[in-house]
Amino acid sequence: MTFAIGRRTTLGLLAATAAPGLTRAQTLQRPARIIVGFPAGGSSDVVARLYAERLRGLYAPQVIVEGRVGAAGRIAVEFVRDAEKDGSVVLQTPASMLTLQPHVFPREVRYDALTDLIPVSTVCTFPFAFAVPKDHPAQTLPAWIDWAKAQGRELPWASPAAGSAPHFMGIVLARKAGITMTHVPFRGAAPAVQDLIAGRLTCFLGVLGDVSPQHGQGLRLLAVSSAARNPRFPDVPTFRELGHPDLDKDEWFGALLPAGTPAPVVQALHRAIRAAAATPEMVAALDRLEYAPITSDSPAAFAARIRRERDDWAAVVRESGFRPEN
């Protein structure tokens, strides 16, 4: 899953250090490629380019971004799975490609993040948000749930795409709250937000950065999925505060290498990602775009996160009864 660029995006990838193919300067001697699975101009592409610019000369003589677009991002994952194992080809991908899609598209997904690839680190995280039209009578999420129950009909709501994380979060919310909603999938957030502002939808669940520019203008935020309140919107509570801990979820972009890449290269890439994420320039860029420069403590910690989130989504998808044609 990717997201059209709004005020949210950022962060990309990589770097390396002394091991086969690396110099004492901790730099690859050949160009490195950051592979993304979504079109130019989308968040995956922008994030990768931000880091490619900063890692050029640090990780490799050149660091370029290469799109391998198609199959909802799966082509890029498969390309890196089969690529050179010397650290010169790195995957940047959203979490859902590794944790959610294996359950949503079990026949189409032909990779395993923990056996076909080596998780290195997250490179950024960003939360989701629940939004309603600005003139909606409900001022809070509990009030909105009460309003929805009183309607006596199925309510149209939107997410950026069928089978996306926000789609399943909406299913969980509706089931736990005891309300009936009809999912209206969109191809990206922008048209959904337009319909929400126009009053054709009752609510939207999507990336915070896709709706935050309109908060207080065309729409109103009622909850965010982060562990803590967003400093820019201190009056907007978290789902957990409102009694919905199952919706305490962040999306992330992560960096992975092909299985079989030497351990010293993996460790070098991990160190470089953390160093890049900590630079004042990147911290400032992420802050403006409402991304957080959160990286994994170690490749093993990142692998554990993927395994945990993949297991969590399995139960959610199974209980939803979702099929790709839905």
Keywords, separated by commas or semicolons:
single chain, 326 residues, alpha/beta, nine-stranded mixed beta sheet, 11 helices, 9 strands
Task: Walk me through the structure.
With 326 residues, this protein is of the alpha/beta class. The protein has helices spanning 43-55, 74-81, 96-99, 101-104, 141-151, 165-177, 189-197, 208-211, 263-277, 280-288, 299-320; strands spanning 32-36, 63-67, 89-94, 117-133, 155-159, 181-185, 203-207, 219-224, 250-258. Strands 1, 2, 3, 4, 5, 6, 7, 8 and 9 form a nine-stranded mixed β-sheet that branches.
Q: Which structural class do you get from the secondary structure elements? A: alpha/beta
Radius of gyration: 20 Å
Categorize the overall geometry.
globular
Taking the alpha carbons of the first and last residues, their distance comes to 17 Å
The helix count comes to 11
Q: Give the helix proportion (percent range).
A: 25-40%
Mean pLDDT: 86
Describe the sheet with the most strands: 9 strands, mixed
Write the H/E string, N to C: EHEHEHHEHEHEHEHEEHHH
Note the topology.
Layout: E1 32-36, H1 43-55, E2 63-67, H2 74-81, E3 89-94, H3 96-99, H4 101-104, E4 117-133, H5 141-151, E5 155-159, H6 165-177, E6 181-185, H7 189-197, E7 203-207, H8 208-211, E8 219-224, E9 250-258, H9 263-277, H10 280-288, H11 299-320
Parallel strand pairs: 1-2, 1-3, 5-6, 5-7
Antiparallel strand pairs: 3-9, 4-7, 4-8, 4-9
In short:
The protein is α/β, with parallel strands linked by helices and 326 residues long. The chain has helices at 43-55, 74-81, 96-99, 101-104, 141-151, 165-177, 189-197, 208-211, 263-277, 280-288, 299-320, and strands at residues 32-36, 63-67, 89-94, 117-133, 155-159, 181-185, 203-207, 219-224, 250-258.
